[in-house]
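Summary for the lay section of the report: proteins are chains of building blocks that fold into shapes. Here we show the chain for SAM-dependent MTase RsmB/NOP-type domain-containing protein and then a coded description of the shape we predicted for it.
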Amino acid sequence: SAQQAGGSKLPRYVRVNTLKTNLEDVIDYLKREGFSYQGQASGFEDLRRLSGKAFFCDLHLPDLLVFSAKTELHNHYLYKAGHIILQDKASCLPAFLLNPPAGSHVLDACAAPGNKTSHLAAIMNNKGKLFAFDLDAKRLSTMSTLLLRAGVTCQQLANQDFLKVDAHSSEYQTVKYILLDPSCSGSGMVCLRDPSQEQPEESSRLQSLAAFQLHCLNHALQFPQVERVVYSTCSTHAEENEQVVAGSLQQNPDFRLTNLLPNWPERGLPPHTQCLRASPDKTLTHGFFVAMFERHSTGAKEAR
Ligand code: SAM
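The coded shape description reads as follows.
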C-alpha cells in the first residue's frame, strides 16, 4: 500500500517549541512517561533502526526529536499545550537556514497553516516583527489558532496576495529576511501518494505552478533591504525547484546561492548543488527542496 511504501515508515519528528519550553524539559517529561532517550543520533542508521518507545535528538537540527514511525502524539498533552510541534524534519529546514536574529524584521510570504512561521518566531525568541501573508482566509484562521497555541506574539498576519504586497512600502523597509514556501504540486508528500494510482504530473499544471513560484521568488528579491531569501517546496520536480532557482538567478544578478549544510547528504540537481533536497530514501523525510539566496556583499552573519 501507499502507507507501506512511504508514510508509515518515516520516523516521527517532534520540534520542541522553545517559546514555551526547552529540550531538556521535554526529554524529561517523555522519559517519565516510559519513552527511552537514546541521546544524539550519530547517523541515519540510528534513525532507521528506531522502534518502540526509543527516541533520539536529531542529527542536523537542534530542538528536534526523532521517534519511531508508529509513535502517535496528536493527543498528547505536550502537543495540545503547544510545547511540541509535529513537523517533518525537512520542513524544519527553511526557518533553521534563514536563521533571522532576534529583533529582525522578517516576512513569511505564503505562511498558512504556519508551522514555519512559528519556527521563525521561536528562532527570533518572539523579538522583532514577523509579517505573514496568505491568500486563503480559512487557512489563515487555522494559522491564528496554531500561533496562539504556540505562544507566538511577534506576528502580523494579513490575508493578502503576496504578489500584490508593495515591496517599497515604508512598512517593509527594514525587512532583511524572507521565507518563501509557495503552493506547489506536493509531489514530495509520501503519505498523499498512492503508487498504484500515480500519474505523471500534467506538464501544463507544473508549468503554471513554476511560473507562479518564479514570480513569487522574483518579487521577494525586490524588497529593498532584503539580504536573505529562503525558497522551499515539497515537490520533487526540477521544474518547481532547480529550474525556478535558475530562472531567478538569471533575472537577479545581485543575488547568489548560499552553499547550505555541507554535510547534508542530498543536494540540488547539478549545477545547483548549493541547494538541498530531501527524500524518504536518503534523508528519511518527505520529499523537499530548499534554496537560499543571499545578496552579494551583505553584512549578514555567516550562514548555517
Ligand atoms: N509555509 C506554510 C507552513 O509551513 O505551514 C505552508 C505554505 S503552503 C505550501 C502554501 C500557501 O501559499 C497556501 O497556504 C496558499 O494558500 C498560499 N498562497 C498561494 N498563493 C498565494 C499568494 N499569491 N499569496 C500569498 N499566499 C499564497
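Put simply, here is one thing we learned. Residues 91-295 form a domain with the Rossmann fold fold (CATH 3.40.50.150).
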